[in-house]
Each structure stands twice: as structure tokens, then as C-alpha cells.
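Appendix B. One record, verbatim.
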Amino acid sequence: MAKLTDSFSGPGIKRKAPPAISNPPISIQKRLSGSVDAPNGSEQVLDHLVENSVLTDKLMKDLVALIQDGNFPEVACAALKVRLNNYEIWLEVGQKDFINRESSIYSLFYSSVKAADAYCESTAVQSLNSCSKGDWRASADFLAKRFPSRWNLNQKVETMVKDQMQRTLAALKDRMSETSYNELLDCLEVLDIEE
């Protein structure tokens, strides 16, 4: 499987040179220049560590490569000295541009990050499948997470217990006085047990 960052292409993604964005939209420009205060001032502490506040083609390629390799956005941003807030803004603007079919560096960034996430996941699934051949637990864990309604044992047991509880309560309701039954329900509520 070819890495997406080599060409920024993949199913439905064609690489075009991003347009030169000398003046990003005002709200982005204010947020990225730091003229908008951080919600609790926490970002000001990191100002001396942050170097990359403008999304460039190279920065985009480096971020996407780290995401594709399995890094969380927080780690990728820290490694490249990018504020996580900027990353999130770039993705948000990119998603809007992507939905509106606008060609911008932000829409390319958004689609590239989504493709990198998908590539990372598919690579992990391939690795899991090859490793699980020797150990059934890896396959069971994957199936429980990927298809929880059919394979998650905890969820199945919880469903079975709830079903049994409902049948038991229905049988008790017919055999108990209304007052006793309501007291039982109150006790179950105190114990945080649903009907």
C-alpha cells in the first residue's frame, strides 16, 4: 500500500497545487496571529515554544505524515511546534471548504488528514489480521470493538441480564402487592439497577 503523503493522492483525491493564501479569512487570521485571547490564557504560556502558526504545504505534508504513521493530533502538533488550536481551526475551515467544493490549502489539508486516518486504520487492521493468526484473543478483541453488537461479550451479558431482570420483575409484579412491588423498585433504584 503506497503512502498517501508521497503524492497526496488517493481514491477521489487529486493533488493540485494549493492556491497561495496570503490573506486567510479574517477570523482565522485573528486566531492564528494571536490577536484573539486564548479562552483561559493557557496558550500564552506556550507562545515561546510555538513556531508554526501558518499552514504551509510543507507543514501540511509533515502533519499528514505523522497522522498517517498513527500519531494522535496532539503529538503531531507538538512534534512540529503547532498549536493544537490552530490544527483544529485548519481542519474546521478545511471541512467547510471541502463540503463547499472550494479549492484551498485548508480543504486539501482536511481531505489529506481524513485519508491519512483511513490509511493508518487500514494498516493497523492488516497488521492485526496478520498477528491474530497465532492468537485468537487479538481477533476476538478486534471483533468486539469493530462489531460490538455481535461480539462484545460484556454488552451481550448486560443485555441478557436486563432481559432476565425484566422477566423477573414482571413475574414479581403479579405475585406481590402494589406497595411491596413499589418498595422493591425503590430499592433497585437506590442500587442503580434499571427495570
